[in-house]
Write a structure and sequence with these properties.
Blueprint (H helix, E strand, L loop, with lengths): L14 H33 L2 H39 L5 H7 L1 H29 L5 H23 L7 H34 L9 H39 L33
Length: 280
């Protein structure tokens, strides 16, 4: 009992309550996100027109579809979670079941938090894009994060669910739908960004040869600066992912049920050369 992994900020007896509270909190976050998107839609229609209005409507409509898909996912996940508890607890209470399966419970809580956080961040990014104070890339990153969080929630639920469970099949279908809607947000964001940038097409027809050469050299300098910055940001992203993996418990070699994890496949770069057969 002493060696069982414990959450850093949640007591074992509180895990069951935390699951229900976190699911409810995620549902509230989704509902609030839908309301905020509707408000942004009406605001965009009153304050913009033409191409900008068309782009904003397309992006916000795709965000609304994504929120609806996430809402259905959370509802289905809650139903599956109840089914898992009822079928697995036996004579134990719900609280005892969650405490006994603390690793699984903490994974469920973490996945639910990630989904709710991703939805909130997506709405805030969409708000900034509509107000022209944000970047289109933020929406794309948020969409990818939501897809990853959805996969995490499905994986956490699938661990304890029966393979023949109808709720599990529905959850997997909801997950595919969320991924499709997230891809639609990315597509509408990229096409909208291209439309806006096409409006501001650069015209070099009035420039002299000297001016063109100067602009060309300045652009080459910017390209080199951006390439260097991109390389540095990629290194930073790799370090952040390593730290995230450590904090998420990725270094644990043995899961709660005692089964050993499969060994990772060796990298190509470190494969050893097979020994040469000796002559008899």
């Amino acid at each position: 009992q002493e060696l069982r992994p414990k959450s850093l900020d949640i007591k074992q007896e509180e895990l069951g309550d935390m699951v229900e509270k976190e699911m409810a909190s995620t549902s509230e976050a989704i509902e609030d996100a839908v309301r905020r998107i509707e408000e942004m839609m009406s605001q965009a229609r009153s304050e913009s027109s033409g191409v900008k209005l068309e782009v904003n409507e397309r992006i916000l409509n795709s965000c609304t579809d994504l929120m609806k898909a996430i809402r259905l996912l959370v509802t289905t996940s809650t139903n599956l979670q109840k089914e898992i508890v009822e079928s697995g607890r036996g004579a134990a209470t719900t609280q005892e079941f969650y405490a006994k399966n603390s690793r699984w419970t903490e994974g469920l809580i973490s996945a639910s938090k990630a989904v709710g956080w991703g939805a909130t961040q997506l709405v805030e990014s969409a708000d900034r894009v509509v107000l022209h104070t944000g970047k289109y890339e933020e929406l794309i990153v948020c969409s990818h994060e939501i897809a990853a969080s959805t996969a995490q929630l499905v994986a956490a639920s699938k661990v304890k669910a029966e393979k023949s469970s109808r709720n599990l099949a529905r959850l997997q279908e909801c997950s595919r739908n969320v991924n499709e809607m997230a891809a639609n947000v990315v597509a509408s964001t990229k096409s909208g960004q291209e439309q806006i940038e096409e409006k501001d097409t650069m015209d070099f027809s009035g420039m002299s040869l000297i001016k063109l050469k100067k602009e060309e050299m300045e652009t080459q300098v910017k390209v080199l600066e951006l390439e260097k910055r991109l390389e540095g940001e990629r290194v930073r992203l790799g370090e952040l992912r390593k730290q995230h993996y450590v904090l998420a418990g990725g270094c644990d070699d043995t899961p709660e049920d005692g089964e050993a994890k499969p060994a990772p496949a060796p990298r190509r770069g470190i494969l050893k050369k097979p020994p040469i057969a000796q002559k008899p």
